[in-house]
Amino acid sequence: MTRSRFELPPRLVDWSILVTVGFVAATGLLTLISGRPSDAVVFALHGVGGLALVLLLFWKLRRVRPRVTVRRAWDRHTPVSILLALLAVGALATGAVWSFGVTPRLGPWPLLFVHMVLGALVVPVLLVHLRSRFRLPSTHDFEGRRTALSSLAVVGFGALTWRLQRTANRLLDTGGEDHRFTGSTEDGSDAGNAFPVTSWVADDPDPIEADAWTLRIGGETRRELELTDSDLDPENGHRATLDCTSGWYSTHDWRGVRVGDLLDAVEPGTEAEWVSFRSVTGYRWSLPVEEAREALLATHVDGERLDHGHGYPLRLVAPGRRGFQWVKWVEAVDVTRRRDLGEWLAIFVSGFDR
Ligand SMILES: Nc1nc2c(c(=O)[nH]1)N[C@H]1C(S)=C(S)[C@@H](COP(=O)(O)O)O[C@H]1N2
Ligand SMILES: [Mo]
Q1: Which helix (H) or strand (E) holds 118?
Q2: Which ligand is nearest to the CA of 323?
């Protein structure tokens, strides 16, 4: 088979795919904890990487097609390769469709969630695929000038199509224009409690009775404090956007207690670095002390008392953080010296022991 001058050596394509998949997987994970406008670059890089992968995958799939269409060419690893191709194409397609503002649900799952699942599955299936198909490159495959030029072409293609996609969104007035920089679409802003309720995995506590609830504040502090619902004086407010990683956002006027005021009352020790917020369900998340001070433990949204689904009696409002970090049904604030890595597990397993 003759190769056109624009086609890259197979091994170079394969290695470029490996590197690019690593890049989109890493940036994809990073998007989950990116919520500030200055983080927009993470989403852009993820998009550019995905589009670069479209070109690489086009080359690759064209080359290997006969190995699939000719039944004799199959070996026992071929099904894994086909599965991998389907997952990769599915992840790229769902990502692209979402970027154009088409945001259907597939049964209970938002398309963006399907995108994440497919993308996450690519990684282990790719590792299995590599076990049977891994080939060390020869120096010939990476001849300097050609490698540099082709890398440039692939990255250039990704960046250019990303740019064109934005322009197309604007010109064709697709819903993509209305996405926040995180890719999320607006839902229920300024409508009080009438915005989506999202809890994940098993977190579903019974409604909390105000008299049976207290808020404890302690840890690396000089004093401890226990407050009841009637002690909470919702005198502080923030306008902030809750942005869920499943692809929706909602902007509201939140009112409640400034965490900094609570901390002043208990006096954190000099070693205090983090503040952890724990839910009655065991769900928890922590923020660095300085950031936590500016956060809010909210009792009200747009002037309404928070309802049960949104975390009554008290929920964390952490501007610039993604929704999953806005702990609902908070009952304890714990000042600590070290970052609590167990929270990464807690958010998945909380609620299962009930
Ligand atoms: N205790 C607890 N807090 C939680 C969650 C949860 O499952 N349990 N879900 C988080 C997620 S993923 C999001 S997006 C927001 C959603 O808040 P809402 O249900 O008020 O819209 O709450 C966060 N806080
Ligand atoms: Mo979320």
Answers
A1: helix 111-133
A2: 1
- Residue 339 phi, psi (nearest 5): -60, 135
- Which DSSP helix (H) or strand (E) runs through 94? helix 78-99
Residue 4 in this model has a pLDDT that exceeds 60: no
Cα gap 31→179, rounded to integer Å: 15
**How much of the chain is in helix, strand and coil states, percent to nearest 5?**
50, 20, 35
Ligand 1: nearest atom to the Cα of 196? 21
CB under 5 Å of ion ligand 2: residues: 198, 244, 323-324
Could you state, in order of their start, the residue ranges of all structural domains in the chain? 10-183, 187-349
**Best of 246, 252, 305, 328 to mutate for ligand 1, by most ligand atoms within 8 A of CB?**
328
- Which of 199, 307, 348 to probe ligand 1 with, by most ligand atoms within 8 A of CB? 199
3-state secondary structure of 246: coil
**Phi/psi of residue 147, nearest 5 degrees:** -60, -45
What's the pTM?
0.93
Whether the Cβ atoms of residue 298 and residue 181 lie closer than 8 Å to each other: no
Residue nearest to ligand 1 atom 19, measured at CA: 197
- For atom 2 of ligand 1, the residue with the nearest CA is 328
Distance 53 CA to ligand 1 centre (A): 33
What's the whole-number mean pLDDT along residues 337-344?
95
**Topology adopted by domain 10-183:** Fumarate Reductase Cytochrome B subunit (1.20.950)
| From the candidate CATH numbers 3.90.420.10, 3.90.1700.10, 3.10.350.10, 3.40.50.300, the one assigned to the domain spanning 187-349 | 3.90.420.10
Q: Residues 239, 300: contact at Cβ < 8 Å?
A: no
Q: What is the distance, to the nearest Å, from the Cα of residue 165 to the centroid of all Cα atoms in its chain?
A: 22
- pLDDT, tens digit, 9 for 90 and up, residues 50-71: 999 999 999 999 999 999 999 8
